[in-house]
Write a structure and sequence with these properties.
- The chain is mostly helical.
- The protein has one domain.
- The protein is about 75% helix and about 0% strand.
- α2 runs antiparallel to α8, α5 packs across α7 and α8 runs antiparallel to α9.
- The longest helix is centred in the last third of the chain and has 27 residues.
- The chain is globular.
Length: about 300
């Protein structure tokens, strides 16, 4: 499956996962959701690997550890931001990860002056996509929420770093299922640590179904996303990730009856246009636009 289609499918799965998390949060603490998300993912991948005759052994344990630590910290900070910020603000700050990735690549180009060319129009597509996110979510931030806002910004920064680490692992030969497996283990460890302070809730059939759904959706989405970043172009993938906002808006309308304002509709259109532009630019080399070199996988 091509990288753009993988990104779109993963974004849809993550949007549905977000819906399940929102429903599950009425019954479970954040640490429990993180733990069971990792547990279900680790079991699913272990069984799949066994059936396919693969192996979870790796020669890149340190890189997996770094990626898991970065990803889990990003997740934890994002949940912290959600606790103190309006949902729209926290979501927008988390989607800053794509802009951070563009900043990483451009900064590497300026500092190193070498690497594979990055089409400047792809950078514009990423920024246009983020502008669409702002229109859809219309974030606000008060002085009392500054600490939570900083947490959200750092979450986006760490998420960008985690995506680039995923890409480096993929180009080093690690299959996506192994990358997601070790990240699931990291989530289990972080969730278990949190549960030591928050405790465990009694389960119901509905709660268990939501937890299993969260784990499966997260695992499948991460595998697709990991594969896309291993074979595709970073900025193109980043632009297409904004489709998750479109899917979330649709789910919000269907499930919660959230209204779609003219500004939100304009933002959705801008997100779609940015994604289409990124896909088109990915399929052809830059010809008339100035190019900037990207950082190599080793530098990420």
């Amino acid at each position: 499956m091509a990288a753009p289609l993988l990104i779109l499918c993963a974004s849809l799965l993550f949007a549905v996962m977000g819906l399940c998390i929102k429903l599950a949060s009425a019954h479970y603490a954040t640490a429990e959701i993180v733990f069971y998300r990792g547990l279900v993912g680790a079991i699913f991948i272990a069984v799949m690997t066994l059936l396919r005759g693969g192996t979870l052994r790796t020669q890149l344990l340190a890189q997996h550890g770094k990626r898991s630590l970065t990803g889990v910290c990003a997740l934890g900070l994002w949940f912290h931001a959600l606790a103190g910020l309006p949902l729209a603000t926290a979501m927008t700050l988390n989607y800053m990860s794509s802009v951070w990735m563009a900043a990483f690549l451009v900064g590497s180009a300026l500092l190193l002056g070498r690497g594979r060319p990055v089409d400047a129009r792809l950078v514009a597509a990423v920024l246009a996509g983020f502008a669409g996110v702002v229109l859809v979510l219309k974030p606000t931030l008060t002085r009392e929420q500054l600490g939570y806002g900083v947490a959200g910004l750092v979450s986006g920064l760490l998420a960008a770093s985690a995506y680039l680490q995923v890409q480096a692992l993929g180009r080093a030969g690690e299959p996506e299922y192994r990358i997601v497996f070790y990240f699931s283990l990291g989530g289990m460890a972080a969730g278990a640590l949190g549960m030591a302070f928050t405790g465990m809730q009694a389960h119901s059939a509905r709660g268990l179904l939501l937890l299993v759904a969260i784990g499966l959706l997260a695992t499948l989405g991460q595998m697709m996303m990991t594969r896309a970043y291993a074979i595709g172009r970073t900025l193109s993938n980043a632009s297409l990730q904004y489709s998750g906002i479109v899917f979330s808006c649709v789910l919000g309308v269907l499930v919660f009856g959230d209204p779609l304002t003219p500004g939100a509709l304009a933002g959705i259109g801008l997100i779609i246009a940015a994604g289409l532009a990124a896909t088109w630019l990915r399929s052809r080399p830059a010809q008339d636009a100035p190019a900037l070199p990207a950082a190599t996988a080793q530098n990420r």
